[in-house]
Amino acid sequence: VIRVYCKTFKKDCNEDFGSLLVHRDITKEYEIAKTKSEIVSTVSHELRTPLASVLGFTELLLNKELKPERKTKYLQTIYNEAKRLTALINDFLDIQRMESGKQTYEKKFIDITSILQNVIELQKVNTSSHKIQFSVELEETIILGDRMKIEQVFTNLLNNAIKYSPKGGNIFIRVYGSEDMISIDVKDEGLGIPEDAIPHLFQQFYRVDNSDRRRIGGTGLGLAIVQEIVKAHGGVITVSSEYGKSSTFTTHFPHVMMKVNKQNDYGAAS
Ligand code: ADP
């Protein structure tokens, strides 16, 4: 984007004696302004949708004589939407804390398998729209990590797998690795990701803007948060996808081998 400034110089008698033309490349400013306004509109939309539900169902509850079952149904919707709003605001706060370096992690020895089981169970309570297949190929799956944050990583990845794939689809969660590394695949059979979008996926507020997913809500913060947490645990996240077919997000964490560190009868590590 080029902005052109033009100034014509005149002598006292109003006779032109020259013009100065200045070109300035404002592509960067233009991109930033465009991104900012896109962010504002995405965020407003994401906040407004659940709020509209809360208001609408509250009005119904206040103004109508309703059967108890209906009341419970409306209250459940209000509760779910309020939870969605809280999760959104927590995402914004997380991103801000991560950016300012104020995010703290309470690391302990935690078992990835049991964390994944919890995340999957919770997901099954909320929705039964997909078949989740879980396999573990390692005997021990311990890492040094913050339980809540690691749960957030897999909740975000599993939510995305569900959000961006058709109902009834399979989701495969596989734990494998070596003595040094634990890897976890979260694979879906969904929309996939265009190749040119892959380098941007972990940027804050980035969303793939294709007609096939325009109606799917989101802020573009989920993967940015996931990557920050994974990095803070000395891990990496990679993605591979076949556009239109499947996506696999793989996280790798340093493996803590508890058995290797146990003392044997002679006091040496076995
Ligand atoms: P959000 O889902 O809120 O848009 P994310 O940061 O979680 O934000 O994801 C960024 C983008 O990456 C999404 O907009 C979506 O287009 C794409 N994406 C993420 N996960 C998947 C997936 N499993 N399958 C297809 N596309 C995905």
List keywords for this structure.
single chain, 270 residues, five-stranded mixed β-sheet, 6 helices, 9 strands, extended, binds adenosine-5'-diphosphate, histidine kinase
Strand and helix order: EEHHEHEEHEEHEEH
- Measure the end-to-end span: 65 Å
Which strand order do you get reading across the main beta sheet?
4-6-7-9-8
Shape: extended
What Rg, in angstroms, do the CA atoms define? Answer: 26 Å
Approximate strand percentage = 15-25%
- Oligomer state of the chains in this structure: single chain
**How many separate helices?**
6
Q: Any ligands, ions or cofactors bound here, and which?
A: adenosine-5'-diphosphate
By secondary-structure content and strand pairing, the structural class works out as alpha+beta
Uncertain ranges: 264-270
Largest sheet: 5 strands, mixed
Roughly what is the average pLDDT, rounded to an integer?
A: 88
Helix content: 40-55%
> How many DSSP E strands?
9
Subcellular location: Cell membrane
Protein name: histidine kinase
Domain Histidine kinase: 42-257
Overview of this protein structure:
Keywords: ATP-binding, Cell membrane, Coiled coil, Kinase, Membrane, Nucleotide-binding, Phosphoprotein, Transferase, Transmembrane, Transmembrane helix, Two-component regulatory system. This is histidine kinase. The protein is extended. Helix 3 (112-126) packs across helix 4 (147-163) and helix 4 runs antiparallel to helix 5. The strands form three sheets. Strands 4-6-7-9-8 form a five-stranded mixed β-sheet, covered by helices on one side. It has a two-stranded antiparallel sheet with strand order 1-2. The chain has a two-stranded antiparallel ribbon with strand order 3-5. By secondary structure, it is of the alpha+beta class. The termini are far apart. The chain has helices at residues 27-63, 68-99, 112-126, 147-163, 222-232, 258-261; strands at 2-10, 16-25, 108-111, 131-136, 142-145, 170-177, 181-188, 236-242, 246-254. The protein binds adenosine-5'-diphosphate (ADP). Adenosine-5'-diphosphate (ADP) is lined by residues 160-161, 164, 188, 190-193, 201, 206-208, 213, 218-224, 247.
